Amino acid sequence: VVVRRAGDVIPEVLRALVERRHGEEREFVMPVTCPVCESAVQRGEGEAAARCTGGLFCAAQRKQALLHFVSRRAMDMEGFGERLIDQLVERDLVRTPADLFALTQQDLTGLDRMGEKSAANLLAAIAAAKTPPLARLIFALGIRNVGEATARDLARHFRSMQALAEADEPALQQVPDVGPVVAQSIRAFFSEGHNQAVLKALQQRGVQWVAPAAAAIESATGDGGLQGKTFVLTGTLAGMTREQAAQRIEAAGGKVVSSVSKKTSYVVAGEAAGSKLEKAQTLGLAVLDEAALLALLNSTSVNTSENG
Prior knowledge:
By secondary structure, this protein is of the alpha/beta class. Helices cover 45% and strands 10% of the residues. It has helices at residues 62-70, 82-90, 97-100, 105-109, 116-128, 134-140, 148-158, 161-166, 169-172, 180-191, 193-204, 214-223, 242-251, 275-283, 290-307, and strands at 2-6, 10-15, 41-42, 51-52, 230-234, 255-257, 266-269, 286-288.
């Protein structure tokens, strides 16, 4: 084929060089299973890319899957940086997220630049991560199309990993903002035997996820003063992290999503807010700074208490 550069990086196929064919060519057929881990291959409707569904198991995805799993917004396992994950994978000490919870002092002190104190700190971080909120664990699994907000919605709706894993696509679409594409991604993930085996191994190694408290579910479904309001957070807040801000908004009954749309109630803009703020201004949406957000949360808390 003849390929040329189109735009910045995207290649464009101009034509096939039929005259160079010699008759021994073989037609390419997209594999139905991953050539690395043999998990099912999924190709979304209207998408060009085909993807392996063995996200927790596939060696080709291992490092990135582990880095996502230990990240601050997922399992928040402090100390597990990229260099450490590289060593653990290259030395075959960790193949899946469940293997992290089987690491020993001896395993860790055998790594480059790892002393006894550093190893002890890592083991403490591993132990602290054994009782994650269900929403964090769902997000940590790296299910395609499932971000933090969707993970929280799934945790509130199903309240257990087993219930989520067993849900069919119609049941999944009962969750707010979960449409056919997201439901298909979730179903494909939990239908893969390798992923089920990793979840089982996590439990066997002492990981016990915590379901959302009933009070939190009630506030998120109607008792909070911000019920029905949708927020998008962008930029850096001075007095709290965006995660803390999201928790306060949700405790007041609001919902935090990742993208700005006409349905967004408020965009909370911190320092160095980017394209989301620009889109909010273009759409004429209400934009709050941190002080205005705190005032709204405080007034909501007062009103809720008075009404109670």
